[in-house]
Sequence to fold (596 residues):
Amino acid sequence: MVCVKQVPDVAEIRIDEVKHTLIRSGVPSILNPFDEFAVEEALRIREKSGGDVTVISMGPLQAKETLSKCLAMGADRAILLSDPKFAGADTWATSKTLAMTIQKIGFDVVLCGMKAVDGETSQVGPEIAELLGIPHVSYVKRVEINNDGRSLVAERMTEQGHQLIRSSIPCLLTATKALNVPRIPTLLSQMAAKKKEIEIFTADSIGAQKDQVGLPGSRTHVLKVFTPNLRTGECKILQADDKDAIPQLLGLLKKEGITQ
Amino acid sequence: MSQNTASGVWIVGEQKDGQMAAVTLELLTIGRWIADSLKEQLTVVMVGNDLDPMVGTLEEYGPNKIILVSGPSANQFIPEVYSESIAALVSKTTPSVILFPATYDGRDFAARLAARLQVGLAADCTEVSVDDEGRFVQVRPAFGGNLMAVINQPTAKPQLATLRPHITKPVKATTKVKPLVEHATVAVLPKNFDKKVLETVREVAEESGNLDEAEVVIGVGRGLGSLDNLKTVNKLAVLLNAAVGGSRGVVDAGWLPHSQQIGLTGRVISPKMYMALGISGAVQHLVGVRTAKEIVAINIDPEAPIFKVATYGIVGDLFSILPQLIKELESQPARN
Fold:
């Protein structure tokens, strides 16, 4: 079971410096990069240990493109949670919706990306795990499913290295880019994927009440958004052969209290 | 959770092997401001064994209460155990706000706790405050730092937030209160699952600091030329007490471990100073350093985009500049 998200290509987002808003038009939608590693790892687990790979996503109907890509990579089944009732969900409401769906379908290993590049919270994976009552390993660099299929050993990235963690299955993992190199769908696999149906689930399909999901189910409310001051154009640039180049840098270090 | 009876600001600190993480004192500082604004009490919770020696330091930052959670399963970080332990404390007395560090571990168990308590969690905040209406308000970046969102949590308590390191300097309390010190027992793993840390491995050079914790982060790009040149950079890092990270290109080339990648598919950092060496400044990299206070760039290409976001830049050959800088720093008196 893999949870994926369609996100805007963050690297393509520009800011309207007059209106202080995001320029989102013309920005392509992509499969969240970290989710791609999660899908790839799920396919590799299937190849080694059997089972099937279901990909789920929550979003508008447009997110079908993202699920098509996952099917083309080789996923067996794709479910899109699409319902106006899901709109405006925060991490809690999103996790709740995804967990209810995962619970309904059944699972052994759940994979998510370590974060989505738009919201950047890293919360949905661990929250789903808590709601499912299973352990999770975040920031996974490598994973081995033990032969009996009842436990796994994962390498978790830490601030300065890694930890080796053993966990029972069922378990949830969140993927880093170190995990694998995702396969690129072939023309043939894309054709095959087109024949597979993307199932659409609504709030009713998962038995969710209106106040459990979307904005009404959310605990965090956005009061306002603003674009930060990205301090462009205020850079003082010196040439390396300028006799002031190093002294000014030393001065800055001192000013910031980094050196004495 | 009952809205009316919830009171108090908690911070959950971080420590590794009995070493207090700097972010703990930053959280305490911010926690005290929030507690004072809300006219509520400040509590600090630490999980780990033999933490009593930390009480003296914690006290200086003015908490009303210190809760030390210890026991056999507190020796290693296991998010399920941490969240369960904090949930047990919350079930006895519900605070209105809990703050966590936005570190790998902090995010991990704060998220489980939020789900368990069915409350909100604002992630990676760069600012928190209490507004004119007495609401606890959080500010957090999204879309690669292109957008800041102002968030509140009106419907459920406690209100949870993880805070990025370095968003404030630690400030000791001016009025000293003798805090109450309580001991609690750490939770055990639920019977229906098993989890164990088998091994903890350090991949980063011993002298290299932690990207999240260090005040100065040196970022290296392909402009470094070769792995061998990293030695010069590490020398500078030691002098500045800096951590060393890098661009995707450098990590993919195997010059630095994956944990040190800064940017869209790596880590997002907010140091006091980010020093970009031989980094051209692709958007994918810049989103990882936008919240740094100062950005210093050294690059041979005067047109490199890094100069557009930097506060100070030197155009020139890295390997004629670095030795000069190192020489100057070595001749200075040692930093306290």
In short: Chain A touches chain B through 88 residues (CB under 8 Å). The mean pLDDT of chain A is 91.
